[in-house]
Amino acid sequence: MSEPVEIWEISFDEAGAVDWQLLDPRETAAADAFIHAEDRYRYGVIHTALRLRLSELLGIAAEAVPIVVGAHGRPFVAGRAAEIDFNLSHSRRTGLIAISKAGTVGVDVEDRDATADYSEMIDTIFEQHEAACLHRLEKSVRNDLFLRGWTRKEAVAKAVGTGFLLDPKLFQVPLDDGGSWSVSVRSPMSRRLALIDLSSDARAAAVAGVALPTRPRVRRFHFAQTLRSRAASTR
Ligand SMILES: CC(C)(COP(=O)(O)OP(=O)(O)OC[C@H]1O[C@@H](n2cnc3c(N)ncnc32)[C@H](O)[C@@H]1OP(=O)(O)O)[C@@H](O)C(=O)NCCC(=O)NCCS
Q1: What residues does the 4'-phosphopantetheinyl transferase domain cover (predicted)?
Q2: Alpha carbon of 161 to ligand 1 centroid (Å)
């Protein structure tokens, strides 16, 4: 792995067919539990992509990468967790995968929705000062910073490993429109994490973790092409 932290973006609209044989029984059951076919499909795409990339990095067949679920539902590579960490997030349109050889990593993505109004959710996610700042803003700016703040908090909570079992009001994130920062999280243990905005016009997103580069490259994962090359090389 040339970079200590890799970030991959997948567009579900352009992904193509999933090779379901690459998933393990736990993943297949999780995919089959979705009510909507599109959710099952998105799960299949992102978990297949994760396996394909981990396979290259670890030198293990994609279907044999031992991914297990630990405390609070956080998945990791069994027996190699000290060497490699990963995290993923999926919105309706986009999947993001972060893989790190430098330590814990968390990622989150949310689609932008010009028709949404997030005002009523502000006080459940943001602490007093953050919430006051968001409430003062004009709607389109408030929506933008709400989503950026939300993805930043969730990326931190996922890097810590608790997800939102960690009360997002217990730590602050910067609420401006882009950049990279260092944030402190006191619970469940004291941690200092790098936090980087990865937002674009179509989505808000953030990555948090240790030893992140200041400007990580977000690379497009060419799903169909990667599966085709794999099939050709195993023929
Ligand atoms: C789990 C949680 C982070 C998912 O967030 P979300 O916005 O719905 O979904 P995202 O697409 O951003 O992320 C989902 C991915 O995060 C990962 N994840 C799950 N639990 C995680 C955790 N505790 N920490 C970090 N990552 C986690 C998984 O890979 C999951 O995708 P998968 O189910 O396809 O494997 C969020 O629901 C949460 O904070 N829940 C509270 C913790 C919880 O209930 N854990 C389950 C107990 S068994």
Answers
A1: 105-191
A2: 9
Q: What residues make up the domain containing 202?
A: 5-233
| Nearest in space to 105 (alpha carbons), one of 154, 43, 146, 52 | 154
- CATH number at 77 reads 3.90.470.20
Asked if the model's pLDDT at residue 187 lies above 70, the reply is: no
**DSSP SS3 for 137:** coil
CB-defined site of ligand 1, < 6 Å: 43, 72-75, 87-90, 106, 108, 154, 157-158, 161-165
> What pTM value is reported for the model?
0.95
Identify the residue whose C-alpha is closest to ligand 1 atom 4. 163
- What is the tally of structural domains in the chain? 1
Closest ligand 1 atom to residue 47 Cα is: 34
Q: 32: which strand partners?
A: none
Considering only CA atoms, which residue is closest to atom 17 of ligand 1? 74
Find all residues with CB under 8 Å of 144, minimum gap 6, and list them. 112, 177, 204
pLDDT band at 230 (very low <50, low <70, confident <90, very high): confident
